[in-house]
Amino acid sequence: xxxxxxxxxxxxxxxxxxxxxxxxxxxxxxxxxxxxxxxxxxxxxxxxxxxxxxxxxxxxxxxxxxxxxxxxxxxxxxxxxxxxxxxxxxxxxxxxxxxxxxxxxxxxxxxxxxxxxxxxxxxxxxxxxxxxxxxxxxxxxxxxxxxxxxxxxxxxxxxxxxxxxxxxxxxxxxxxxxxxxxxxxxxxxxxxxxxxxxxxxxxxxxxxxxxxxxxxxxxxxxxxxxxxxxxxxxxxxxxxxx
Length: 242
Description:
The protein has 242 residues and is mostly helical. It is 69% helix and 4% strand.
């Protein structure tokens, strides 16, 4: 009598990855609000996982700055520290302004700029444009490629770290159609200035572009937090009423 093949046990790392992605999505979609507290047992029960991969996923999120561990009190979604984000934006602007001045002196500048212009063509009809999370990935690539093309590896490394730390709020800039449209137009203007080797003008446009995005994501973040809190209140009220 033959028996069905037995599947090998699932590696614990894959469970950790699953828990990590689920928790990160909860944070990104404001299903868990900044300041919310919870325990490893809560997460393990909800995600049908043991405590060990849950703890590993939480420590990974802690290293990335999304959660804090509380002494004998479980975990907490890290509250938004807009002053800290402003400091990160200041550093990002400093690096990117320096990068555009270096980029125009690089032999590879023309090729890099031309490739980016093909992606960020503001004349493309709206239906041809990528939207949502894909725009966020392309936008990160736009800024990172400019810095990398400047030729300073340490500058590129630090900029990449900044990009990852700012991702939690920057991604919201691409949740509204008008902001996607503005991103295409502003990127195209920056690239045109770079193609003309007008680095001072490109730096000015880049600064204005980042500051506008910074203000937009702050407003959108506060709006999303308010909306999520209102939904939670309605659910609590409905539960009490029931």
